[in-house]
Design goal:
β6 and β7 form a beta hairpin. The protein is about 60% helix and about 15% strand. α4 (about 90-145) packs antiparallel against α5 (about 150-175). The chain has helices spanning about 5-10, 10-30, 35-75, 90-145, 150-175, 185-195, 200-205, 220-240, 285-290, 300-310, and strands spanning about 185, 210, 215-220, 245-255, 260-265, 310-320, 320-330. It is an alpha+beta fold. The protein folds into two domains: about 5-85, no CATH class; about 180-339, Heat Shock Protein 90 (2-Layer Sandwich). It is built from ten helices and seven strands.
Length: about 350
């Protein structure tokens, strides 16, 4: 709170005072009041005016300065009321009460929204689990039939199943603390499950699935990691090149304090200007224009889940040559491991 701005805001009081003093001075002169009395009166009025301005200023200054500083310092500015002492001056009391009423109203509305969100979240989870049953049944039915129609139907059902899983894990990743379970997991088992789940797509697209040096134990959530790897492999399949020797290689590297899993393919790759954005929500880049089957959510969810699990993920790629995805698992003795 600047004193200069405070004076500007109260300039009308100064003008009124000067007008009143000028009238009083004319009256003093008209009645031939001694100069000593006029001077002493002027001195008293100047002191009075100064005090009238300074005392309210300093009473208000601390409250308003604290208000502005605390708003800037807080990540959640709406909590500023909790950091303030109730002021003693009348205008401050009005503002404090107004902030209290606004804060109370906001909290009530937030609670309503949170309840609505939780109800909707529970419904979505329930719906996903319910819809997966008929999906699995339809996939089994299509497996028992041959022919082009059954093949196309199965392919579309698998895509639909993947989108349903995407919604489920996206919803869960927003409230990850309640859903994941960190324990020691063998990478070879996780990769085996992912390979089996994507076997039909790999065979149909004539992609060699090469796995070596993955017999490492890491601390993670097995189901979440399966989903993460599934999204990466789906992208490799989706963005394959039309060549005879298409492949997806999965291999691991281990050092003293970390284990790194590398998923490599020789697909169409990612252009350099898109690399920094591949983990952004709904980003599809130039490849999304070439292959019209991308939501841009898979890698975003995968990165979000890796962060929740304490893993690091990054991508290296040369356009039209290769793409490598690196997932790094730290060895942390402070994990509460469940075996």
């Amino acid at each position: 709170m600047k004193f200069s701005e405070y004076l500007k805001d109260n300039i009308y009081k100064i003008i009124i005072y000067l007008i009143c003093y000028s009238i009083n001075l004319l009256i003093y002169l008209a009645f031939k009041v001694p100069k000593s009395v006029i001077i002493s009166t002027l001195f008293t009025e100047i002191i009075s005016l100064t005090l009238i301005f300074l005392i309210p200023y300093y009473r208000k200054k601390k409250f308003y300065n604290d208000l502005l500083l605390n708003i800037k310092a807080l990540d959640k500015s709406y909590l500023v009321l909790e950091t303030l002492n109730k002021p003693e001056f009348y205008e401050g009391k009005i503002l404090y009460q107004a902030l209290y009423d606004i804060n109370k109203s906001m909290n009530e509305n937030v609670k309503k929204i949170e309840k609505h969100f939780l109800d909707f979240k529970e419904y979505i989870e329930m719906w996903i689990h319910e819809v997966k049953i008929p999906l699995a049944t339809l996939i089994l039915i299509s497996n028992n039939h041959r022919g082009l129609f059954a093949k196309k139907t199965k392919r579309e059902l698998k895509r639909l199943e993947n989108y349903v899983d995407e919604v489920l894990y996206y919803e869960r990743s927003e409230n990850a603390e309640k859903d994941y379970l960190i324990k020691e997991v063998n990478l070879s088992e996780v990769i085996k499950n992912v390979g089996l789940k994507n076997m039909d797509d790999l065979l149909e697209n004539k992609i060699d699935f090469l796995v070596k040096d993955v017999n490492f134990h890491v601390l993670t959530d097995g189901k979440w990691l399966e989903f993460i790897l599934g999204q990466i492999i789906n992208n490799s399949i989706k963005y394959k090149k039309n060549i005879k020797n298409s492949y997806i290689k999965i291999y691991g590297e281990e050092s003293l304090n970390k284990t790194t899993l590398i998923i490599e393919d020789n697909g169409i790759g990612i252009k350099k200007h898109d690399l920094n954005q591949v983990f952004d929500k709904t980003f599809t880049g130039d490849n999304g224009r070439v292959v019209n089957k991308s939501t841009g959510m898979g890698l975003f969810i995968a990165k979000n889940m890796c962060e929740k699990l304490g893993h690091k993920i990054h991508i290296e790629s040369v356009y039209n040559e290769y793409t490598k995805v690196f997932i790094t698992f730290a060895k942390n003795e402070y994990y509460d491991v469940i075996k």
